[in-house]
Structures are given as structure tokens and as C-alpha cells.
Structure prediction request, 341 residues.
Amino acid sequence: MLDVVQPARSPRTPRQRRSEGCSDRGFASGIQRPQPTGVQMRLHSSLAAFTVSAVLLLTGTTAASAAPSSDAASGHQTRAGASAAPRENSTQRPVFFIKGYTPGDTCGAKWNSAAKLFKKWKGELHRVGFYKTDDRGCDVRIDPGGKGTGDTSIRDLGRGLAWQIYRMYSSKGQTVDLVGHSMGGLIARAALAGYNQGDPSWPKKLLVEDVVTLGTPHKAAFAVHCLSDLQCREMYYPNGTFRRWLGKKLPQAQGGTDWTLIGSNADWSVSAGNAAPTDIGAQHLVRYSDRSGLGHSALRTTRRGVYPLRYTNNGGAWGSLPRGAAPLRATMNALYWDSRW
Prediction:
């Protein structure tokens, strides 16, 4: 999944001072090593990788072209103790793409590159907007009254996202996947956090199988240039009110949620350690080398090429790939595969 060759599309796995409002130079700065099976497959991109599940995630191959696996897990226990539908490799799930901090900027165009890569994905693709200035390129709005600004709390946006997911899909028993860039990853995390905490202002049911975050400041962000905005303060201060509410660990939706965190050492806005930390409960971590040249915005737009990276799955030892898949391709594979990391 993290390697690179451009064959048939591979569907899902269960798993820059301003950019997104801050550019490419702006925010804050296990077990035994897996064999070429689940893990490496996702990070590689050669057709041969298709035969080995691990190679798919970090490779440039797409899961869509791979045959569905029959080793899906049985059912996960929900918050209320009920059993959710079995997980499986699939391109059928709807995907919500959530941009980052971009008040006054375009909306839908942020995900044009992803849309090209996901053109064979069978599930609905949604682009999420949350500023009053956002254009119609974002078909799902989560800001209260459609009047969002840089002072709209990320927590409120998370609540709005949770309700949209519920109304559109969870209420009908349909599971979805989420992809968040920069602050967008915190919005996704907030959506699940309110549900996981049993907040009465959140929907009682939320079905999110996979979440991939790209350059998200899970720990902190270098946003000193925009601290006049509440959203920047919530990203910047690691011990602020929002961070304390968010919790130290990644939350789970009903039936369980598989988290993949992707960061880059060439990102001057959010360091790889803050974007893909080891201590918040993510199942999969990917960190691109500084030699990759993948800055903050590039994590959201790069779908082609090969890049050096390191990865770890489920707390295992770190592995490395000199020719790892592009960020968006690794994202697609992470959304497709159920258990072959």
C-alpha cells in the first residue's frame, strides 16, 4: 500500500507558512518488524504487490483493482454493546473529504487531485465546507447556519459533521470513511469524540469505519500567524480547552474505527511527529522523509510518484520504504483494505 507502481486501482483497507490557511511552512513543526505482507503491501505501488496484502497500502497500487478479501473481521462491539456489520474490503463506502483552515479561500477545489484518483471509487464522494465564504464545490456544509468563520470552534464543526454523517448515512445503517487534511483531521476527530463521550448534543449512532488524516496537528500546530482566530488557537495550544475536551486518545465510532495518520518531515506547518504521533492510539502511522519534499499542502494534493517513508502498524516495529506511495494513494488504499495492512 505504501509502495509505488501505477496499476489497477486498489480500493480500501480497514483500515506550506499558510496552506489550508497556513502555507507549506507554517503550523508546528513495534512487535517484530512485519514481513512483506500486510504492512508493506499498502505502502508499495507495484502490481506484484497486489499479491501480497501488505505491499498495497504503501505502494502506488490501488486497492480497487484488487480482489475483495474474505478475511473480514466478524462484528465489532458498539458503544451500546450492539454488533455492527462485518468489515470488508470495499470501494462502496461514501467518503467525506474535509479540508483544513482556509477562511476566505476556495473550497471544493482543494480536493480536485483526490477526485481524480478516486474516480473509480463506487461510493459517493463528498467535499466538506464550513466557512460562509465557501463555494458550492463543497456539497456538505457543517458550520452552524452556513455562517462559519475562523472563530467557529472545531468542536462545533465536529458536531455538525457528525450530524451530517448521521442524517445521510448512519441513520440508514451505512458506514462511511473520512479523510481530513490539516485542521480537517481534527474536525473528523471531534466528530467521533463527541459521539464516543456520549455527548447528548451528538447523534446516538455514528458509523465511521476508517479515518485517514494528512498533516493534521494531533499534538500541536505552528499557527502563530493566525492566533487571532479561535480555530488557530485550538490547534496551537496543546493544553487548551478544546484539546482537553478532545481527549488524549483517538475516539471510536460505533462498530470500531481504524485510524491512519500520515505526516511528513518536509512539512513546516505540522511536524511528522505531531501529525503521526505514536501515543494516541492510531493503528497505522506513515511518516514521509524530509527528502520527499512533501510539504503541508502536498500531502493533500500528491497522488503520483514515489517517496521515501517510514511506517508502523498496530504498535509494531518501524519499517521503511525508499519508494513509498504518494500520500493520496496511500490514503485510498487505507480506506479500501479491511485487514491487510
About this structure: The chain has one domain: 13-67+88-338. Residues 3-41, 45-56, 62-83 have pLDDT under 50 and may be disordered.
